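User: Second chain of the day. Same drill as before.
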Amino acid sequence: RPKEEKAPPAPPRAISVLVADFENLTGDPDFNDTLEQPMGISLEGAPYISVYKHPRAHSVAKQLSSRADDRLDAERALLVSRREGINAVVEASIKPDGKGYTISVQALEPATGKQIAQADQKIKTKAEVLQATHNLAINIGAKLGGIPPESVKALSKETFTTSSLEAMQAYSRAQELSVQAKDKEAIEEYEKAIASDPDRGWAYS
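Assistant: Same format as last time:
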């Protein structure tokens, strides 16, 4: 009797994700509005994950929640996700830990707000923060897809070898300006990102 071949594992289902604003508990402004972009870029490197655009999420949040501040915290992100039919909210924080920092990330199920995935990483220096954010995104993406992290890393199209927070801050500002149709100002910020870190393809794109 011929040996039955095992069927290949089914690919992960398509998952939509909204990345909430990072909670910066360090007191260092270099981490403000800087880590959401690499988290989103890295998550979207897995072909089964689509990331809901941050500026659009802020706009929807303002319609749903009449607060003075415009932070897209987990509470607001969950509201947006329920309204827009998004599958998961990813929230994260960075806090001092001894002489370094700890980054903690969790994914929440929008309907209940319950945690469905969690990961954290300790780093020694600020220069490691972008690579650590990428690693955590791979980890969370693997848990959301139910596949090994090594598989997600193999599928991922993007890596972060840079330690340039300045480049990522400029890139984040450019993305926001681009959504607002302020193309001239956006190009200036993209050029700043390229000047800070010439090897990054996303700024050229």
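The first strand starts at residue 15 and ends at 19.

User: Great, on to the next one.
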